[in-house]
Amino acid sequence: MRIAINNSKLDISEIDTTKKLAGDFINYLKKGSFVCLYGEIGVGKTTFVKHFINTYQIYKNLEISEVTSPTFSLMNEYLVGDILINHCDLFRIKNNKDLTNLGLFENIEDKILIIEWPKLIKKKPKNRIEIYFYYKKNFFSRQLKIKKYGRCKSYAFLKK
Fold first, then answer.
1. Under a CB-based contact definition with an 8 Å cutoff, are residues 154 and 146 in contact?
2. Nearest CA to 54 among 141, 140, 46?
3. 121-138 confidence digits (pLDDT tens)
4. Helix 45-59 to helix 15-24 angle, to the nearest 10 degrees?
């Protein structure tokens, strides 16, 4: 049974659901993938990235890294086997000059690029995945919605 398709909403209030969904993304994100994460502070964006990277490391039989928010460093890099993952947080970026200085789009085809707070990026790649994180009625319930654009690999996660 499908639990996520393009534009569907998923309840991620339970950390195990977030962990499984993020882990499932290792089957879909490859070199050249561009992912935008939208949502309020504390809604689960960095937690999602942490579980994606850690699951990928487990899959590749590598040591687990501590995945932290790149809010102050702006970008954290993780080498998972032969795949470079850049995890960026643009919350503190205020203008296009600062954005350009980060060099986000250099060699984009050779890495997975995951960006929190991507609103400042005016020209996003045509092929991308956007994930929207939402609080529901209270701050304990959360959901997300996935949208894909262009020719990103289609996905449908199967309930196990």
1. no
2. 46
3. 988 888 899 999 999 888
4. 60
Q: How does 33-47 read in b/e, with b if 16+ C-beta sit within 10 Å?
A: bbbbbbbeeebbbbb
Alpha-carbon span 136 to 107, nearest angstrom = 37
Determine the 3-state secondary structure of 15 from DSSP.
Answer: helix
Helix (H, G, I), strand (E, B) or coil at 151: coil
pTM: 0.87
Task: State how far the Cα of 116 lies from the Cα of 82, in Å rounded to an integer.
Answer: 23
3-state SS class at 123: coil
**At 91, is the pLDDT very low, low, confident or very high (cuts 50, 70, 90)?**
very high
Q: Is 132 helix (H, G, I), strand (E, B) or coil?
A: strand
